[in-house]
Design a protein that fits this description.
- It is a single chain.
- With about 350 residues, the protein is α/β, with parallel strands linked by helices.
- Helix content is about 45%, strand content about 15%.
- Strands 1-2-6-5-4-3-7-8-9 form a 9-stranded mixed beta sheet, sandwiched between helices.
Length: about 350
Amino acid sequence: MATDSAARDKLRLIRSANIGPVTYFQLIARFGSAAAALEAIPNLAARGGGRAPQIASLSDVEAEMRAVERLGARYLFVGEGLYPPLLAELDTAPPALIVRGRLDLLDRPTIAIVGARNASAAACRFARGLAHDLTGEGVLVVSGLARGIDTAAHQGSVDAGTVGVIASGIDIAFPPENAELQDRIARDGVLIAEQPPGREPLARHFPSRNRIIAGMALGTVVIEAAPKSGSLITARLANEAGREVMAVPGSPLDPRAQGCNALIREGATLVQNAADVLEAIRPMSSQVRAPVDRWRAGPVDVEADDAARRAITDLLGHTPVAVDELVRQSGAHPAVVATVLLELELAGRVTRHAGGRVSE
C-alpha cells in the first residue's frame, strides 16, 4: 500500500468536496501527486470563478484510517498491485477501495451476476447453480449483496470464491437480513466498499456500486430484470466498458423477464449454463491487457486563457453534453477543455454525468 503520508494525502483529495474519480485522476495527472494537487485546488477553483471546495481535514482522514484498521479492513489505491486490474481501466474507477477478506481471490477471472430483487424462486435457484458451477471452473463471482438474485449468486459461490460490493460503509450490512452472509463474505471471500465506514447506503450510492461490479468483471450475467432496473444499469455500464453482456431468457408473460429478453434482442449473449458464460468470455480472458498508467503520469503544464474559458463556458447548459462535443464546438485543444472543466468543477459550477457528459 502507499506510505501512510501518501495515503493520507490521497484520501484527503478523494474525500474533498467536488472531487469525483475523473477530477481526481486529472489532478494527479496534472500535478503528479495528491499533495501537490491539494495545494493547487484553491487557485484552480478561483480560475473557475468560484470558491475553493472544502478540503477534507487531516484529522478526519486519520480518524477514518483508524476506523478501517479497527474493522480489520484495508485500503486498495488504484495503481497498486492488489487493486482489481479490470476496474482500474475505467475512467471512473474508484481511486480507493476499502476491502476485507481474501485478496488473493482478486487474481481470478471474474464474472458479475446481477438481477431482480423480487426474483422468482426458479431464477434464484438458477443463479445459485450458475454461480456454483462458475466457481468450480476457477471463476470469481461478483455481485451486490442485494435481495434476490444477488443473494443467490453469493450463496452459490461463497464456498469457493465470491466478491460482495456494497453501497454503504464496510461496517454496515444492507439489507439487514444479509448481515450473516456479508460477514461470511468478508471472511471467506472479498467484501468491497467505496464509501467510508459508518456511511449509510443512499440511493445515489447504488449506481456507483454498480459500476464497480461491472468494472471488475470480464462480463455481466443478468438473471431477471424489470425495465429500468438497477441490473440493466449494471449491464449498460458493462457494455460501455467493452465487457461481455449476457442474459438468461425468461417467459414473455413475466414482467421480471422483460429486461433480460430486451437485452438479448439488443445483442446480449443468451446463456443457459456456465459453459455458455465461459465460452462468451474466453476471447476476452485470453487478451493481454495493457497497464493503465494515468495515475503515474508526471506533472504536466496545461493552461487555458480567458478566451478559451469563455468559449467553453458559453457552450455549457443544464442539458448534459459530451466533452467531445465541447472540444468540437469550441475548437480548443482537448487538454484545454479538460483544464477548464476541472477548474469549473472545483468551483462547483459543473456537474459530471455518466458517459463522459457535463452540465452546469
